[in-house]
Amino acid sequence: MLGGTFDPVHLGHLRSAVELHEALGLDRVHMIPAAQPPLRGEPHITPEERLALLRLGIGDTPGLVADPRELEREGPSYSADTLATLRRDHGPEARLVMALGHDAFLRLAEWREPERLFALAHLVVMDRPDHDAALPEALAALIDGREVDDAETLMAAPCGGLLRLRLPSRMAISATEVRHRLAEGRSVRYLLPEAVEERILSAGLYRR
Ligand code: ATP
Questions:
Q1: Is residue 185 assigned to a domain?
Q2: Whole-model pTM?
Q3: I need a labelling partner for 113 at 20 to 30 A (CA). Which of 21, 80, 85, 190 fits?
Q4: Is 24:155 a contact under the CB 8 Å cutoff?
Q5: Domain at 136, CATH number
């Protein structure tokens, strides 16, 4: 699972998903837009628009799936609840992984039921350029004893571990920068898949 606001999806998300798929030998990466992200303000476009852009961005990429499950629930989108539905779908033996960037990881101790995340899945933290702050104390305590050194060790169990990964093509692209550029009418070429850029421009999304 690679959850996010995807406001909008960009090549940093998509390339990370492809490289995660490869690095961990995953069957699938479920990219799951949050209907209502609990720890940030309202997204700039609707959940349905973000899901539609995600679908366009993924296109026919092998191994990546745009998964609408958080749009089908009422209220805030808590990852523990989402992982519980994936666990239910795939059974107790499946290796489930929740991937997130280092910036999102830094706030993990503030998430709802962070311990439950580890009871349901492994966590994989992706390095992200410009995001290398030290871990807060509560987070260090939460992950104590969970870290493993390689993907093989992680994937030997169905859940409970933590792996930090430096993926080959780390991209310094953020949705915030993409939105700023769009609002100012500046180019976003090569930050987004072409089909996503076309839809945003033709529908006039993210214009000031
Ligand atoms: P914003 O700038 O609006 O905060 P964002 O670009 O960080 O957005 P999110 O939708 O919040 O995008 O991110 C979803 C997940 O993808 C998070 O775990 C985030 O850390 C990760 N992520 C986002 N951009 C990248 C990137 N360029 N490389 C690796 N991981 C990324």
A1: no
A2: 0.96
A3: 21
A4: yes
A5: 3.40.50.620
